[in-house]
Each structure stands twice: as C-alpha cells, then as structure tokens.
Design goal:
Chain lengths: 288, 267
C-alpha cells in the first residue's frame, strides 16, 4: 500500500519550441501512513508532481504506481483512484458551489455513487474532522470566513474517504492564526485516521513541526529527501535555491559555531530551548 | 486542455509590422477584406496572395504558426467547398449516382475562389491580431472611433471594456482549467452521460467560475479606483499614437495594392 514513482518526467508543450521540462526523472516512494512535506520554490514542479499522483496529469515518461498498479495502464479505474488519493488544490474554497455547506461536502461521495445515507454519514464525519459543527450545515458556503471556507473545502475532499490526502499550499493567503489552525487540524487528522498525507508548501517553517519527512524540489528534480533535521543540515544549499531553513536552525548553528555544546539539529522551538538550557547547565525549562 | 487556441492571439516578436500604428493595421485589414469581394478572376487572388506573403514575411511570424491557427476553421472551409462544388449548376464535368450528384466546371471555379477568399480573410485578420497587442488594438480603435463622440457614444469606455474583456480571456481559461481539475478530483465527470446530465455537470464548474469572475472584476474596479481612474475625460496617454514615416509608407503600399488588385481583379 504505497505510492511509487519510477523515472517520471513531464514536459509542457512537448514537441514545440516552448517545450519545458517541469518534472525531470523523479523516482520516489511514499509508504503508507507517512506525513510528508513537499517543499519547493514557485515553478519547481511541486504542483505538477501532485497532479500526477491522482491521474489528473499523465507522465510524459515513466510510471506512477498506486498499490503496485500502474495508474496510466489502459482500463485502470481513475475514478476509484481519485477517491483513494484525495487532492486539495490551492485555494480550494474557489471550488465551492452548492447552496449550503452540507450539500457541497456531499458532492464528492455522491459522485462515487454511494447510497444517500452513506453520503450523508461521510459528509457529517468529514465536517467533524475539520471542526465544522452542525450549526454551519445549512449556511451558504459563501457566508463563511476565509479559514472556515477552506476547511469546508477540505472536508469536501475528505468525504470521499481517501487513504492518501494531498494538500497543495493549504495555508496560502491565511493569517498566522488560520495557518496554525489548519496545520494542527491536518496533524490531528493524520493521527486520528492514519492517513498518508502529502503537504505541499514553500515554507519550511510551516512544515518542520509536523512532518516525518521532507522532500525538497528544485527545477523539476528532487534535491533533498529525508527527515526534517537531516534536510535542515543542508541549510546553505537550501538558501542557494531560494528556500530557507526554520529560524531555529540558524540560531542553533550559530551557537554551535561559537563553541556552545548544543545539538544543531534541533528543529522546533521547544527542542532548541531545551538544548540551550542544557548547554547553560540548567535543567529547568524556559517556560514562564 | 484549453490552451491550444492560437487563432487571434498575439505573437511576441519585433518586426516592422509589429511596430506599425494599430490604426494602419485596423484600416488595412478592413480594406483588405473588402478588396477580396471585388475579385472576379484569378489575377486578383494572385495579387492578394503576393501582398499577404509580403506582410507575413515582414512580420517574421512563422508561417506554420499561422496555419496552426487555421485548423479551427477547417471544418467550415470543407463544408463551404463541398456545397459549392456539388450544388453549382453549369457544364457538368463528372457525375455520380446516375447524374444526381455532379461536379461542374463553374462549381470547381467557385469552390476554389470561395476557399481562397475564406483562407485569405482569416489569414489577413489573424495577421492583425498576431502582430498587435490587445491594448494597442483598442487604443487604435478608440482613436479611429473618436468622431462618434459627437453622437454621445462613450468611445473611451467601450474601448476600455474591450481591452479588459480581452485581457480576461486567458485568465478565465486558466481558471476554468483549474476548477475543472479540482472538481474532477472530487469525482465530477464532464465527459460522459446524456445531454441533460452533461449540462447538469457544468453547474459545479460554472458557479465557481462566475463567482471568480465577479471577484476579479471587483478587485480590478477597486484597483482602478485606487489609481484615481475616472474615465476618459482629460486622460493623457503614456504612449500616444502618432503616425510615423513607416505608417505613411504602409498606407502607400496598401493604396498600391488596392488599385492593382481591384483594377486587375475586375478585368
């Protein structure tokens, strides 16, 4: 049960002078239940890559396998694939269209041809998962706040019952609080359901705290792949391609260079604080 | 999926034709199209072809790119040719099905002329859009239609609306593509089913598209107001349209073509 990419390349406008290689020979495996952060600059190919995973785009070269089956093979049931691999696009609230929140969330499972009770059960469950209680059910999706709209749209994909959830920049355009809320919701979701989650972002700060693994893309290639602390060790290379490691990384590396006995690999603020206190010879934490 | 439309799009490059005043190109295209309807013999078409070839050569737009845009009207072209070929009365050359369907000498002549006329018409007008940015085009139109202001026609406003509409075409195409993909990811099916089902399947596409169009229009209006836009009254142009020497030469060439084409084409 996993997603495997084998030498996948994608060329926009192939065969014309405008041809552009958006993905270049990507080999990748995402095992079940992993929380992966996909990081890259605008135009690095991350959005193109995720659209290959549920068959919206077809690789120019190479193969994509879901649970061992080639998704571009003739006769492969793409509709079923799209219900197992849910894709939440950037600004998903722009796809809302129904008269009320509940009917909009029902759209996905209804398309799967499920009976009415099952559709409604799934919609309710999905709305619970994103923290929208029943009082919102009968409201027009266009009356919700920005963060609520986005959560309703994410519920619309969750109601399909995906095993893998891909989110393309789910925090774009939200204020810091909305951003935090969405990310924590996603983490909770992963813990509760054991779903595989692929979170696309251009901000390391956003993902560092939550993910098990980070993939860094640059010019259509996977540049770095590993646990957050391994990836952040390459913070100088990251800077060269216009990305940055979390601020904590910089502080810890600077302290390390100045001769403090701290673990420069600390990725979260809590870890870093603990390390600094340890180096200063105090055991209590900085809290309060 | 929707990006294959090249007919009527601007081709970015620098050439004499690109630099011409849009009024020359607008007027020229109009006169060229009218001239096509005056020809009564082969020579008129030969002269028109030579004139078009010269313009295409000077514009440095690859011929293949122009032809690619023609695919959109291929079907129309075929139907027109077929009707003229089979339905024109006259001296029969070949006949099928016991004389019910026949091709006449006049039919062939007419079909060839009509096909040429249609092709020239499309190529001629796409030469204008290929070499003129939409903004330039509306600027030219605004200036040419200025006399209508005497009759209280809001020329500037109409031109502004046109340029905004043109600008929004690629944006809305991209938006359609995006929303379509998002709904397909939610299991929507735009390709199969009966007519009624297909029409119903468009709702999840059209509602978000309309909302997004309104949102963008609203944003644009706000941005224009923030820059103190208040219509054409007293508004100066950053790049005013002023005739250059090359525009004079272009008008001269156009005049020569018209005299030669219509003079010889009607003999």
């Amino acid at each position: 049960m996993s997603i495997v990419l084998e030498h996948v390349s994608y060329i926009y406008e192939a065969g014309t002078p405008l041809a552009q290689r958006a993905l270049d020979d990507i080999c990748l495996e995402i095992p079940n239940g992993q929380f992966v952060g996909l990081i890259g600059h605008t135009g690095s190919g991350k959005s193109t890559l995720v659209q290959h995973l549920n068959g919206l785009m077809k690789a120019t070269e190479g193969h994509v396998y879901y649970n061992g089956e080639d998704i571009d093979a003739p006769g492969y049931d793409k509709k079923k694939l799209r219900s197992s691999v849910g894709l939440v696009f950037q600004y998903p609230e722009h796809q809302l269209f129904e008269i009320d929140v509940f009917s909009d969330v029902c759209f996905g499972p209804k398309n799967l041809g499920l009976p009415k009770e099952e559709v409604e059960r799934r919609a309710r469950e999905a709305l619970n998962l994103v923290g929208l209680s029943e009082e919102y059910d009968k409201q027009s999706p266009f009356e919700l706040s920005g963060g609520q709209k986005r959560r309703a749209a994410i519920a619309g994909v969750l109601a399909m019952g995906p095993k893998v959830l891909i989110l393309d920049e789910p925090t774009a355009g939200l204020d810091p609080r909305g951003r935090e809320e969405i990310l924590q919701q996603i983490k909770r979701l992963q813990v509760q359901t054991g779903m595989t989650i692929l979170l696309v972002s251009h901000s390391m700060e956003d993902v560092a705290e939550y993910v098990d693994r980070i993939l860094v893309m640059n010019h259509g290639r996977v540049m770095l792949d590993g646990a957050p602390r391994e990836v952040f060790r390459h913070y100088k290379e990251l800077e060269e391609v216009g990305l940055a490691a979390p601020q904590v990384t910089y502080i810890m590396h600077a302290l390390h260079e100045k001769g403090f006995d701290v673990d420069a690999d600390a990725t979260t603020i809590e870890e870093a604080a603990g390390e600094i206190m340890k180096a200063l010879g105090r055991s209590e934490t900085l809290r309060n | 999926m929707l990006r294959d439309i090249t007919l009527g799009q601007y081709y970015q490059t620098d050439s004499v034709i690109h630099r011409l005043d849009p009024r020359v190109k607008l007027g020229g295209t109009l006169l060229f199209i009218i001239s096509l309807f005056f020809f009564q013999n082969m020579w008129g078409y030969v002269i028109a072809a030579a004139f078009l070839a010269l313009v295409i050569h000077l514009s440095t737009v690859p011929f293949r790119y122009i032809v690619k845009g023609m695919r959109a009207i291929l079907f129309l072209l075929l139907i027109t040719v077929a009707f003229n070929l089979f339905l024109t009365p006259g001296t029969p050359l070949v006949s099928f099905f016991g004389g019910h369907v026949r091709i006449t000498y006049e039919g062939i002549r007419l079909a060839v002329f009509i096909a040429l006329r249609l092709c020239f018409l499309i190529i001629g007008s796409s030469m204008m859009t290929l070499t003129t940015t939409p903004n330039n085009l509306t600027d030219g139109m605004e200036k040419m239609l200025r006399p209508l202001k005497l009759f209280k026609v809001p020329v500037h406003e109409v031109a502004m609306m046109m340029s905004i509409a043109l600008r929004f075409i690629p944006i809305l195409l991209e938006e359609t593509d995006k929303i379509m993909k998002a709904q397909i990811a939610r299991g929507a099916d735009f390709e199969s089913g009966k007519l009624v089902q297909r029409a119903k399947a468009m709702v999840p596409l059209l509602v978000p598209l309309f909302i997004s169009a309104f949102r963008r229009a609203n944003d644009l209006a706000l941005a224009m107001e923030a820059r103190c836009y208040r219509g054409g009254e007293g508004r100066a142009k950053m790049k005013p349209l002023i005739y250059q020497k090359r525009d004079g030469i272009a008008y001269l060439c156009l005049g020569l073509y018209l005299v030669a084409g219509i003079g010889i084409g009607r003999l």
